[in-house]
Amino acid sequence: MPLIRPFAALRPVPEHAADVIAPPYDVLNSAEARLRAHGRPWSFLHISKAEIDLAEDIDPYDAAVYAKSAENLANMIDQRILMREQKDCYYVYRLIMDGHSQTGLVAVASVAAYDKNRVRKHEFTRPAKEDDRVRQIEALNAQTGPVLLAYRSQPDIDAILENVTKAEPLVDVTADDGVQHSFWVIDEEATIRKLTEGFDAMKAIYIADGHHRSAAASRVAKVKAGDGNQNSDYFLSVIYPHKQMKILDYNRIINDLNGLSRDDFINAIEASFVITAEDAAVKPGASGEFGMYLEGQWYRLKISPSLIPDDPVRRLDVSLLATHLIEPVLGILDPRTDARIDFVGGIRGLEELERRIDSGEMAVAFSLFPTSMEALMAVADANEVMPPKSTWFEPKLADGLVSHVLD
Q1: Same domain, 214 and 311
Q2: For a Cys staple, 265 with which of 206, 260, 290, 310, CB 3.0–4.6 Å?
Q3: Rounded Cα–Cα distance for residues 282 and 351 (Å)
Q4: Cα–Cα distance measured from residue 106 to residue 183, given in angstroms and rounded to the nearest whole number
């Protein structure tokens, strides 16, 4: 099996693309989804978050939710809001946010390659979230949330994608969050062949976001094995060159100082960090540097270089902060389960850190330098996993712009 292949996408007819596209299913809760979909009957949230069309107190994992999702998808196809491509194609998907642009390939990636770690991972998955995606795929007989992948930038592949974007896009929509989504179809056989062969020559591609979706696709493929349907052997993906991808900081806030006074806390962290008081919010400019907001004052923390190991996981900034401050000083050993710690994506800005501390809700905040794509790929190549909440990718792929039907 090739690493990737073209497919016949299920996508909005161009005139309804703006009505359909929606934020990814996992960035909104049910209440937020109800508000976003209000007055928008063709929003893909009616498929990805179908509980919004049922009683407000329904469990989002109730069987009725998956059934409603399938009903809504069938209705959007019947009403010709969504259409199926007539042949297998590749697609180009460009995202533009605040002047940042990234241009990637929409394809389906091999489950067999995923199972053999040629599609490389860097996170653990949670069974409950995997189960949810399995039930959604089985109810719809389709994968509706693309997995965000990266490939090591290659000039020939990058050039093909850029060349496609010289034509007018089939879809060009700016969502309500200001992100521009542009979409082209690649149906020329020679170009399809070049792309398939180019990716098949790659040693690996990398999951950036979508570990639960890809794991669920692998589980569904195993159930469907032997039924003669190759579509289930692949999962929906958008693959960007790694140099174009943007990772934002993923910051930490903690609700107490573990019983320490301010002065004792500062003294404790001076064992590993050089601390400098600053007059303005600290946005770290390099790896190994951190901002800290405590009692209305910003500080810049720089870790001693001798404490930075060669190990690809332990040298990550999120690991350094955990190993030398959050664990030994604040006593938080498991950020997955300890309620004393919370995480704030960089898209919210440093003002959100200040707000959470100044309100008295939390005690101390830390701003981090974003994890790099090179660091992410190094972890995946070592067959290791990152600490939780290590990466925040922006801009986000839209749900509904492209889906993969498994029939």
Answers
A1: no
A2: 260
A3: 11
A4: 9
pLDDT tens for each residue of 249-307: 999 999 999 999 999 999 999 999 999 999 999 999 999 999 999 999 999 999 999 99
- Quickly count: other Cβ atoms within 10 Å of residue 85's Cβ: 17
262 shares its domain with 133: no
Shared-domain flag, residues 281 and 218: no
Q: Is residue 379 part of a domain?
A: no
The CA-based dihedral angle spanning residues 315, 319, 324, 327, taken in that order and rounded to the nearest 10 degrees = -160
Place of tokens 């949330």: 145
CA diameter of the chain: 68
> Each residue of 166-221: pLDDT tens digit?
999 999 999 989 999 999 999 999 999 999 999 999 999 999 999 999 999 999 99
Tell me the DSSP string of 88-149.
Answer: -BEEEEEEEETTEEEEEEEEEEEHHHHHTTSEE--S---HHHHHHHHHHHHHHTEE-SPEEE
Cβ contact 150:245 at 8 Å: yes
Place of tokens 């969050």: 177
**C-beta neighbour count of 264 within 10 angstroms:** 12
Which range of residues forms the domain containing residue 320?
A: 250-369
Give the CATH number of the domain where residue 275 resides. Answer: 3.30.1760
Cα separation, 239 vs 245, whole angstroms: 10
Residues 237 and 265 in one domain: no
Predicted confidence (pLDDT) per residue in 375-393, tens digit: 999 999 999 999 999 999 9
Q: Give yes or no: residues 231 and 262 share one domain.
A: no
Looking up tokens 């960090």 gives 273
DSSP string, 310-351: SSTTTTSHHHHHIIIIITTTT----TTT-TTEEEEEGGG-HH
CA dihedral 205, 207, 212, 216 (to 10 degrees): -10
Residues 194 and 125 in one domain: yes
Q: Which amino acid is residue 387, in one-letter code? A: P
Joined tokens for residue 373: 């794509």
User: Burial, 237: exposed, middle or buried (Cβ in 10 Å; 0-12, 13-18, 19+)?
Assistant: buried
Together in a domain, 277 and 217: no
pLDDT 10s digits, 236-248 = 999 999 999 999 9
Residue 243 is predicted with a pLDDT of: 97
Residue 236 in domain: yes
What b/e sequence results for 57-67 when a residue is b if at least 16 CB atoms lie within 10 Å of its CB, and e otherwise? ebebeeeebbe
